[in-house]
Design goal:
Elements (H helix, E strand, L loop, with lengths): L13 H5 L10 E7 L17 H9 L1 E7 L5 H8 L5 H4 L21 H7 L3 E4 L2 E3 L2 E2 L28 E7 L6 H5 L22 H31 L5 E7 L14 H4 E7 L8 E3 L3 E2 L1 H10 L24 E5 L9 E5 L3 E6 L11 H6 L1 H11 L5 H4 L9 E5 L17 H17 L12
Parallel strand pairs: 1-6, 1-7, 2-9, 2-10, 3-6
Antiparallel strand pairs: 2-8, 4-5, 7-8, 11-12, 12-13, 13-14
């Protein structure tokens, strides 16, 4: 494979162009603001009833991507991909919370983006202390062993004049203590006002869970605002490229752990003064691996020979015709699902259709009260046909959705003879992607 080199992007940004000189002091800082389990439920994305002024301002100062997806619908698999720039299914890191005790390392040619940047002269940090009462989660969650992923825990620990690469991980939208904390905010989302997707029953518990998640989005917005204010006072936003994105989709039923839109579509906002037009909107499909590629490009580094990410900006940017996403074992729950999607259609292949959507998963049983409601109503025969789809005893082998007419992905067109040719084209795309990326999902699932 030919080695690829990033070339300067047209625009009036001399500091960024100077980054190509190779001198670390001239290179821009790079900041990743990561939101755990967060979909594009933000007011800048058109979601009603939310007040998210800080992230909205960031979107107004940069580019907003409306079709950004994680490579997997669960944190460890997704993070094992975008922190490297390769699909998790190619590096053997596709099973959730795997390789925690066996010393497994990345295959030859695969490296952490933080290690590549450190080698180029960057100080790398997974930020912890931000402000009184606010800390970063410090999450890595890699499905591999890596020696010292980061140099430190704060951008201020770098040497004078040294550029930094910092990750700030916020867990406000991850199920846990933040969901309790979010309820203490002075202004909460009214459960009666939330717009439920058609696959959930209209029930007080369901409305409360969804509203609580949206409360957490507003809490996260406040935390992002605090972070940016602290960094501004420190002078740490000067000459800094900012990426804001979720690590996977929302932590609600039919979201996290599934390859539907709600499980992998995430917010992605990039602020790059002089390079990115403020307030611009990108509707082309992208994956978080492209954040990795753009980060390396911003630092003036060549992309590795083995690499799946593509720069989002500049003359070497290559729009993707579609994105691929993958779900494998999640905790104790074995499954294998692959998806090819673009702005119009989604093709999902269930390699284990005999395993129902509701096969036992301890995390979901404990953390998703909507599932308990649906089980109860299903037993009583009170779910409508759309809601009952999720309670089926097995999954279809193939799911195919027209996202223009069916954005919630509830009308499976896989059996429509009029669309057989079109479905075959998407099936071929998936087969090609699996072959080209050497998808390892078919290997035996070993106990960790």
């Amino acid at each position: 494979m030919l080695r690829r080199r990033f070339t300067p992007i047209l625009g009036a940004a001399p500091a960024f162009v100077r980054a190509l000189s190779g001198r670390p002091a001239d290179r821009p800082n790079v900041l990743w603001i990561l939101a755990e389990d967060n979909g594009p439920q933000w007011s800048c994305y058109g979601y009603p009833g939310l007040e998210t002024p800080n992230v909205d301002q960031l979107a107004g100062e940069g580019a907003k991507f409306t079709q950004a997806h994680s490579t997997g619908p669960v944190c460890s698999a997704s993070r094992s991909a975008f922190n490297v720039g390769l699909y998790q299914t190619s590096t053997g890191t596709h099973h959730h919370r795997s390789h925690r005790k066996d010393g497994y390392t990345l295959p030859a040619g695969a490296r952490l983006v933080s290690h590549r940047l450190k080698e180029a002269g960057y100080f790398t940090a997974n930020v912890l202390d931000i402000a009184p009462g606010l800390k970063g989660a410090g999450k890595t969650d890699f499905n591999f062993t890596a020696e010292k992923p980061f140099d430190g825990t704060h951008w201020n620990q770098r040497a004078a004049g040294q550029p930094f690469f910092a990750q700030v991980n916020f867990n406000a939208t991850h199920k846990g203590p933040a969901f309790v904390q979010a309820r203490r905010q002075p202004k909460l989302i009214d459960p009666a006002a939330v717009q439920l997707p058609p696959y959930w029953p209209d029930h007080p518990t369901v409305r409360d869970e969804f509203a609580n998640y949206l409360d957490c989005v507003q809490l996260l917005d406040r935390q992002v605002g605090t972070l940016l204010e602290v960094m501004k006072k420190d002078g740490a936003l000067d000459n800094t490229v900012i990426f804001f994105f979720g690590d996977n989709g929302r932590c609600l039923l039919r979201g996290k752990q599934w390859c539907y839109d709600a499980g992998t579509r995430v917010p992605l906002i990039v602020k790059w003064p002089g390079m990115v037009k403020p307030g611009s909107v990108r509707e082309d499909p992208v994956v978080l691996l492209d954040v990795t590629a753009t980060t390396l490009a911003a630092a003036g580094l060549e992309l590795p020979e083995w690499f799946h990410g593509r720069p989002l900006f500049g003359s070497r940017a290559q729009p993707r015709p579609y994105v691929a996403t993958a779900r494998d074992r999640c905790d104790m729950t074995v499954d294998r699902i692959r998806c090819i999607r673009d702005a119009r259609y989604a093709y999902i292949r269930n390699f284990m259709p005999e395993r129902p959507y509701t096969q036992y998963n301890e995390y979901i049983e404990r953390q998703y009260p909507t599932l308990g409601v649906m089980k109860e109503l299903h037993a009583q025969g009170k779910l409508n046909a759309t809601q009952a789809l999720f309670m089926a005893s097995r999954k279809p082998e193939v799911e195919f959705y027209d996202l223009k007419d069916d954005p919630h992905e509830v009308r499976n067109l896989a059996g429509d003879p009029k669309r057989a040719k079109l479905i075959g084209q998407y099936a071929a795309r998936l087969d090609q992607w699996m072959a080209e990326t050497k998808d390892r999902g078919g290997e035996p699932v070993l106990a960790d």
